[in-house]
# Entry
Amino acid sequence: MAAETFFARWSRVKVEARQEPVAQEPAATEAPAEATAPAPTLEQVESLTTDSDFTPFVARGVDEAVRRAALKKLFADPRFNVMDGLDTYIDDYNKFEPLTPLMVAALNHAKDLIAREFAAEEDDEPKDEDL
# Structure
């Protein structure tokens, strides 16, 4: 049997998909298992540890105060306070280190050399009066 081309296989799969009956989704009136559990309280938040399961506290329908307290308890763990090293622009560049006297002397020396070079170039250029 010859190998099936890409488009022939694609067409065959599309036709088979149309012929298969569509599975009906469960009715929305059925309550999920999570909804039957009682909502977490602030007393339960106090008993949380770093190894506890926090998913019931961030589920839909949980009181905002309970959710915030649980997240505050979770992120108080020192494992979440570690810099990743990719924050390259977090330094305060308003506080700079002053230049050392050696660096200032080198810059002044370079300024004088450059000024002499410019003066020498101006002297070498022909003036309009010379033409």
